[in-house]
Design goal:
By secondary structure, the chain is an alpha+beta fold. Among the domains are: 91 residues, wza like domain (wza like fold); 81 residues, Outer membrane lipoprotein wza domain like (Outer membrane lipoprotein wza fold like). It has 5 helices and 12 strands. The strands form 4 sheets. The protein has a 5-stranded mixed beta sheet with strand order 9-8-12-10-11, with helices on one face. Strands 4-1-7 form a 3-stranded antiparallel beta sheet. Strands 2-3 form a two-stranded antiparallel ribbon. A hairpin with a 2-residue loop joins strand 10 and strand 11. The longest helix has 35 residues. The radius of gyration is 30 Å and the shape is elongated.
Amino acid sequence: MKLFRTLTMVMVVVLATSCASHKRIWYLQDAIPYTPEQIEQQGQIRIQPFDRLTIVVNSKDPELAVPFNAATSYNALSPLGTSSYTNNSLQIRTVDEQGFLDLPILGRVECKGLTRSELANKIAQLIIDGEYINDPTVNVQFADMKISVLGEVARPGQFAITNDKITIFDALAMAGDMTVYGIRSDVAVHREVNGVRTIEYLDLTSKEIFHSPAFYIQQNDIIYVKPNKYKAQSGEISQNRSFYISLISTAISMATLIVTISKL
């Protein structure tokens, strides 16, 4: 009977430990199913200084749109030394440090903090207000947007963003999700905006993450997943084991050399 009780207690402890271990890797543990919540932030990626954009203007009359899709160059050989245009509809334009784009015909256009659609609407309205084209349509695309996911994920690295809205879960999915050794309650998101660097820590086990400004990822964010203590300890043990094996191997080699010399 005493042996039976002992075995029962051991089994209970093992099961409890196993459940606790499993719970550590669950996301959104306190979320209540079928409970709608109002989305507080839209989360679209917004234009920042040094972003690279492609801007294409179209019209029912394609000839009217050509100057807006052109690369502007100064022609010193022209009679009046005026600007000339070369067709380059997919030219990449870089937002300057003040958050402005230098566009053909329109000149400098402020775009910092705008979404793609907001900038497209702004450019279209400027074209209409200037009476250049009555029916412009403007397409704005990011030329290259990237995020980095590091630490305890299946495939750490840098990833290109193609959507206007991406969450922390989307970013982790790109990297193959966290490993079982990743700490889900303390994920760091490094961000730089307007020359200010911030680090936000997210608890992915709680639904409160939805209220965090870092829930929606922005371009150039760096996401870091910390290893738990078991992974850290195993890494330290592995390093120590390699050191001691190397030390023992060196000692054996030295002893062998000494014995060989003494026999000579």
